[in-house]
Amino acid sequence: MDIIANYGTTLVLVAALFGFLMAWGIGANDVANAMGTSVGTKSLTIRQAIIIAMIFEFAGAYLAGGEVTATIRNGIIDSNAFADTPDLLVLGMIASLLAAGAWLILASYFGWPVSTTHSIIGAIVGFAVVSIGPEAVQWSKFGGIVGSWVITPAISGVIAYFMFISVQKLIFNTDDPLNNAKRYVPFYMFLTALVICLVTIKKGLTHVGLHLSDGEGILLSIAISIAVAFAGWIYIRGQKYNPQDDSKMHFANVEKVFGILMVITACAMAFAHGSNDVANAIGPLSAVASIVASGGEIGGSSHIAWWILPLGGIGIVIGLATMGEKVMATVGTGITHLTPSRGFAAQLATAATVVIASGTGLPISTTQTLVGAVMGVGLARGIAALNLGVLRNIVVSWIITLPAGAILAIAIFYVLQACFS
Question: Could you write out the DSSP letters of every residue in 159-204?
Answer without folding.
Answer: HHHHHHHHHIIIIITSS-HHHHHHHHHHHHHHHHHHHHHHHHHHHT
